[in-house]
Specification:
Chain lengths: 292, 234
């Protein structure tokens, strides 16, 4: 039982990162009804940029800021260059295009930084915390990751529910024509949505890198987990993405603990298949059918 | 005053509007009537900036509207309530209203907000509910309220009576008429139901296959028997 609890607790940190990446997918979905499979590619790219800044300045924090700025810019570039031209097609065209961007970003990263795995410096202690006479399967770094995830979720929720920009973004997602007729600058609002998603993805990238190392393909598996969490969460729901992201992290940690970590992606895909068979609108999703 | 001059619109090879000219004075309701496919909705969508005209222009008090995007046209003072009770169903009543005129100052919006609740008390009662829980009549009131939040000098109403009970239609249109005269805005009302439209309108034009076939005072048009038979079907 203690071992089971340890496995569960040990999954919170990785769950928080899955939650952030799922959140980024939900943000682009809400803005433009497109699942952006390039999201992990953008996060990988901005994490490499962060690594370069880190090497140059020696500051983890400045590197994080650099990744955030680069994430916003890259989000805007991906939307403008790739999704604007294909917008005339149906959304499946746009989704395929995001795969193209993913492959292009991975190739570009390989050319710039090389294809080998590189270690990303660990800014905080990553050893188990000892408290109340026992070791806990959580490190200070896990708590930092959870803290970042919490702040971003609360911040985004406030943005969406309390601000004019958030209201414009929601209206644009649900009914762009009524939004335009109300005076909302829809194009700009969509772009802000993509920039925000880029920022959240960039933070997730910088947070996950120290625990795994970084290479052009190292985040691919994160896409599988984040996509699973976002879809099961309902794709439209910020809360759903976070809850299911952390839930996925916990389940994967338990699966890896009792069997082998290579089984984790299989379990994620089984969960996704079960969800699509039983409750395709997702746990936190409501109304209207969707095709992904 | 909203002035439309020689406006033509094509959808591919189909001519939806052909050289339409029309003046919509402030303080009055001007009705556009005609059968299905006469180009009524196209006229409204073109004025609102959702459809680009082939030629011709529209202007409000001298400011040219044509060529501007919808989000700018509404900022210039022309608000469209499109066909089909257009609200955002996933948002609450309050949020739907707040959505209108976000560019205006907080104080101005608060003032209009209070006026809209005065005008449509039912919206105040339902402010926390999602718009898709409202009845058809309530949603139409919400759609008009959202447009009013944009502080329009000209209000475009596309088939507000569609699918509503006659009593509610009368209430809404009487309110629109009062609005036009009290706030001194220009109202352009599109209706398939000519009888209803002519009852509240001061002047009217009849559209057929994208062309203005007659214009005059509402009572003139209502009593024009030949025209009624030919274009309005009663």
């Amino acid at each position: 039982m203690t071992q089971f609890l340890d496995y569960v607790l040990g999954g919170i940190g990785s769950g928080a990162i899955i939650a952030l990446m799922a959140l980024a997918l939900v943000l682009t979905w809400r803005a433009t009804r497109v699942v952006n499979f390039a999201q992990v590619g953008q996060a990988m790219f901005t994490t490499f940029i962060a690594l370069s800044i880190q090497t140059l300045t020696g500051s983890w924090f400045i590197a994080l800021i650099g990744a955030i700025v680069a994430g916003a810019i890259l989000g805007v570039i991906v939307q403008y260059l790739v999704l604007r031209p294909v917008k005339r097609m149906d959304t499946s065209g746009a989704i395929i295009a995001t795969f193209g961007v993913l492959i292009a970003l991975q190739a570009a990263a390989g050319m710039i930084w090389g294809g080998d795995s590189q270690a990303y410096p660990q800014p905080f202690s990553n050893t188990a915390i000892s408290l109340f006479g026992r070791e806990w399967p959580l490190s200070v770094y896990d708590l930092v990751v959870i803290g970042f995830a919490g702040v971003l979720v609360v911040g985004l929720t406030l943005l969406f529910t309390r601000t004019s920009l958030g209201l414009s973004m929601r209206a644009t997602a649900f009914n762009p024509e009524v939004a335009r007729l109300s005076g909302v600058r829809v194009g700009r609002t969509l772009t802000i949505g993509w920039a925000l998603a880029g920022v959240v993805g960039a933070v997730a990238g910088v947070l996950v890198a120290p625990t795994s190392a970084i290479s052009p393909n190292s985040f691919d598996i994160l896409l599988v987990f984040a996509f699973t969490a976002a879809v099961i969460g309902g794709l439209d729901s910020l809360i759903g993405a976070v809850a299911l992201g952390i839930g996925t992290g916990l389940i994967l940690s338990v699966v890896s603990g009792y069997s082998d970590s290579s089984n984790a992606p299989v379990v994620a895909l089984v969960l996704l298949a079960l969800n699509l068979a039983i409750k395709p609108e997702g746990i936190f999703g409501h109304n209207s059918a969707r095709s992904v | 005053m909203l002035s439309i001059t020689d406006l033509s619109v094509h959808y591919g090879p189909v001519q939806a509007l052909s050289h339409v000219s029309l003046d919509v004075p402030r303080g009055e309701v001007t009705a556009v009537i005609g059968a299905n496919g006469a180009g009524k909705s196209t006229l409204m969508r073109t004025l609102a900036g959702l459809v680009k005209p082939e030629s011709g222009s529209a202007s409000l008090d001298g400011k040219v509207l044509t060529g501007h995007r919808a989000e700018d046209v509404v900022r210039m003072g022309v608000a469209l309530v499109p066909e089909g009770r257009s609200t955002v169903p996933e948002l609450t009543v309050e949020e739907n209203l707040r959505l209108g005129g976000l560019w205006r100052s907080k104080a101005d919006r608060a003032a209009t907000h209070a006026e809209v609740f005065d005008m449509f008390p039912v919206l105040g009662d339902r402010r926390k509910l999602r718009a898709d829980t409202l009845s058809g009549g309530e949603r139409q009131q919400l759609a008009i309220g959202r447009a009013l939040m944009c502080d329009p000098q000209c209000l475009l109403l596309d088939e507000p009576s569609l699918g509503l009970a006659p009593l509610i239609v009368t209430q809404i249109l009487e309110l629109v008429k009062r609005l036009a005269s009290e706030v001194n805005i220009a109202v352009l009302l599109v209706e398939q139901n000519a009888v209803t439209a002519l009852r509240v309108a001061h002047t009217a034009v009849v559209l057929n296959l994208g062309q203005v076939v007659m214009s005059g005072t509402a009572s003139d048009i209502a009593s024009h028997e030949e025209l009624r038979h030919a274009y309005l079907g009663y």
